[in-house]
Specification:
Layout lengths: L28 E9 L9 E13 L11 E13 L2 E15 L4 E16 L13 H4 L3 E15 L2 E8 L24 E8 L1 E2 L7 E12 L5 E10 L3 E8 L3 E10 L3 E10 L10 E10 L15
Antiparallel strand pairs: 1-2, 1-15, 2-3, 3-4, 4-5, 5-6, 6-7, 7-8, 8-10, 9-10, 10-11, 11-12, 12-13, 13-14, 14-15
């Protein structure tokens, strides 16, 4: 009756985790390492770690004009998510094709394919009737194919993305196919759509700009939720912002970049839902490493994310 994939507060600076079309969108190789500790104070609360890599490569053999040609992007994402006795490990390969529509407007389509490993730690479970025959039929570990698709439209002033993750759905977990004697759950598709816009603040010398953004996400049977985010950023060196997750939390975010090769982002969620008085909030941090190669030239609004 709830989401089956991790949630992220830093979605506006880590779009690749929710949209495969981001792969190769920047003029550099990018590695991100991070983690999230959710609902401090709750026993067995969700904990997530992730690693990702993506880069542009090769031009297409055709072009629409002498100055505009598309390029490919490739990437990989590894995620480990643990909630009490249940854990999920995933590995995905991502491919995207990017094509410029004008000198300043680009579009991309992407696909991701991989595997999910769902595991139950039986040692953490206690059964009212340990002789129940259904226990012997439980499958503590299952490997399941998984996939995602996405689109991404971007310029130096805005971006729009839409994606669907976990598209290979309706797979019964932890019981052999066809077992329906007990309550079970199926994998469901998760839908995302987000948009952001860059607003310059002051004169060009100040280097400050604002990036408001909105993320809509939905998974059955939920009717959908909205995240609102705004950050103030100075060039590619420093930024801070705030985010509101509908019916859940307010967040404070801060990030900095060193010589455009390394960036660090931290966020803290103040829980405003019914569990707020019992939770110490949620922490999330991400480290980014970028490696630029001179022979590549991919037009991309790099300043939208660190």
């Amino acid at each position: 009756m709830s989401q089956q994939r991790p949630q992220y507060t830093q979605y506006s600076t880590n779009q690749f985790l929710i949209n495969p079309a981001i792969a190769g969108s920047q003029d550099m190789d990018e590695i991100k390492l991070g983690g999230r500790i959710q609902w401090i104070g709750f026993e067995d609360a969700p904990q997530t770690i992730f690693a990702s890599y993506h880069a542009p490569f090769k031009k297409m053999p055709f072009q629409t004009t002498m100055n505009r040609r598309g390029h490919h992007g490739m990437g990989v994402i590894l995620i480990k998510d643990v909630t009490g006795p249940i854990s999920q490990t995933s590995a995905h390969l991502n491919y995207a094709y990017h094509h410029p529509f004008t000198a300043n407007l680009n579009g991309a389509v992407g696909v991701s394919l991989g595997m999910l490993q769902h595991t139950i730690d039986m040692g953490q479970l206690s059964f009212k009737n340990s002789n129940d025959p259904i226990i012997d039929r439980l499958m503590p570990t299952r490997f399941i194919p998984d996939g995602s698709v996405g689109i991404w439209v971007y310029s130096d002033k805005f971006y729009f993305g839409a994606s669907v993750t976990q598209i290979i759905s309706n797979t019964t977990m932890f019981l052999p196919t066809g077992e329906r004697q007990v309550e079970t759950f199926d994998l469901e598709a998760h839908y995302f759509a987000n948009v952001g816009y860059k607003l310059d603040v002051g004169d060009e010398r100040s280097g400050w700009f604002l990036v408001p953004s909105v993320l809509f996400k939905s998974v059955r049977p939920s009717s959908g939720h909205v995240d609102f985010n705004i950050r103030a950023q100075k060039n590619n060196s420093f930024w801070f912002g705030t985010s509101f997750r509908q019916d859940d939390s307010f967040s404070a975010l801060v990030g900095f970049s060193a010589m455009q090769d390394f960036a660090f982002t931290y966020s803290y969620d103040f829980i405003i839902s019914d569990i707020g008085p019992y939770s110490g909030g949620s922490h999330e941090l991400t480290m980014t490493f970028k490696f630029k190669k001179k022979q590549r030239k991919v037009i991309c609004p790099d300043s939208f994310w660190l």
